[in-house]
Amino acid sequence: MLRLFANLVIVLACNFFLIVGNAGPSFAQECPDPAKVSNASAQQKQPSKRYDRALPSYRDKSARYNLALVGDSLIELWQPWIKDSFPTRPVMNLGVAGDTTQNALYRLDGLNLPDFHPADVVVLIGTNNLGAKTAPCAVAAGVVAVVSKVRALWPGAHIYALSIPPRGKRYAFYEDVRIPANQLVASSLAEMPGVTFVQMNDDMLRCGKPSDKECSNYKPDHLHFNEGAYKLITSFLAAAGLQL
């Protein structure tokens, strides 16, 4: 497993330079070593109240679940519509609001779910890593590290890794980081068996091209989703092969 992870880091690094090689030398020089980003110590963060309440029950009844959702607030806030989205699947929602990829790695390390053997895992993480001083390869390396950790925890599961969605003013928050990060994740995960990268349709999520108009799929913060967005995401997952 360590060899597989090392190979994935090498692939991620190679793919990064293939994608940004024409962007100019200064951009490449500013990018941190993907291997160092992936191997950085996972960061501890307090879980949400919902997660704290749910985890003991998940542990006690873990054998009854066959689908897990892993990620940040975009996963955690899916909870009111989980049964509508996955009518035939008992779903374990392991999302925690505010988590970065580093926080998610820490959380996955402490799960302690020995009787949980999901058939499928959906991962949506990385939006909280976007920022002006963050290189796309750093964001991508973190997402790949989370998917690799999920693979190590549940080797029999098929993993569906969702792209980082649009957010922010005009739904165009740090697009210069988000878009290439998604491209890097897609190319890197193509080398990992049992993983499907799901590139969500950005324009469908944000109700068209970037603009100042409000989109009913998003809450007023232009970050978190309303029911319409979760319906779209469910359709993207179904089209990628996930049984609902």
From TrEMBL:
Transmembrane segments: none annotated. The keyword Signal applies. InterPro entries: SGNH_hydro (IPR013830), SGNH_hydro_sf (IPR036514). Residues 1-28 form the signal peptide. Residues 71-232 form the SGNH hydrolase-type esterase domain. Keywords: Signal. It comes from the Bacteria. This is Lipase. It comes from Rhizobium ruizarguesonis. The lineage of its organism: Bacteria, Pseudomonadati, Pseudomonadota, Alphaproteobacteria, Hyphomicrobiales.
